Structures are given as structure tokens and as C-alpha cells.
Amino acid sequence: HKLQAAGLAADARDDTQSRLTRLRADRLELERSLGAQVPGTVALKLAALRARLAPDEAYLAYSVGADATIILVVRGQRPVYAARVDTGESALAEGVRALRSALLDRAHAGAWMAPAEALHRQLIAPVASAIDGAEVVLIAADGPLQDLPFAVLRADAGSPYLIADHALGMV
Predict the structure, then answer these.
(1) DSSP for residue 102
(2) Is 62 strand, coil or helix?
């Protein structure tokens, strides 16, 4: 194996092999999810996606699983940025429901801020450096995130809303 040739200790090799196996499984899950978002189509190949993106655009794709969410960012010829967050479908669905409900609650103005900030921490903060500077962020939402108003997400009370930093588009 290449890992043995690299001179890694057995424990480190096992850990690395386990992580590689988990990443491959995550990639397959993401590919299935992306392909299923638009029935009858196949997920874009990376080169084709990059060719379609303008230099100031970022493509942000979410794949929501039962226990975790995978986030990918594609920007031109930069390396693909990937993050895994340990927040799954049911927790995200509850967070989206809480935010949407609070946004509609005129009796408690500002009640939506806490869920908006929590969702920002889970879904935007892990990839913030990868989308920094992008004028346009195209979002491929999965599962409960399809109902999320991404525009109102922000890091904290003193931070701008996501829509203030980026034009947003849902794909």
C-alpha cells in the first residue's frame, strides 16, 4: 500500500484508511443526492461546472444525511473545498422550521435571530473562507435546506446578513 510506503505507523495507517473509506462513502452519497435533485439528470462533472461558473461565482452544494451534512464549494479553478458537519436531517429540519416560524411571528420581533445565527454556524461558517469574495453564491440545497431562507443567515447580531455579502441564487 501507498500508506505503508509513506512510513506511517500502523495506527496512523488504520486511521487514515478509515477516514479515506468514510470520505469515499460521503462522496458517493453526495453524488447520489446531487443526481437526485433534478430527476432525469446527471450531476454535472466538475470540469463542466467550473466552465459554467463566472470568476466571481461560487457553487455551494449541500448533501444532508441522517447524521451529518456534507458541504462542497466549487470556485473556478480553485481546489474544491469540502466540509462535514455533524448535523443531520432532523436537526436541520427543526432549525429551518424554527427560523421560518420565528420570521412570521410579528409579536416577537427579533425572535428569528437566534435560529438564523445557529444555522449560519452550522451551514455557512464551515465554508465561509471558501466563499469569501464571491459576488454570487449559487446554492444547491438538499432536503430541509430547500425551505431555508439563506438570505437572512448571519454570524451574529453585529454581522451582515448573507445576502448583504453575496447575491444568492438557488439551483
Answers:
(1) H
(2) strand
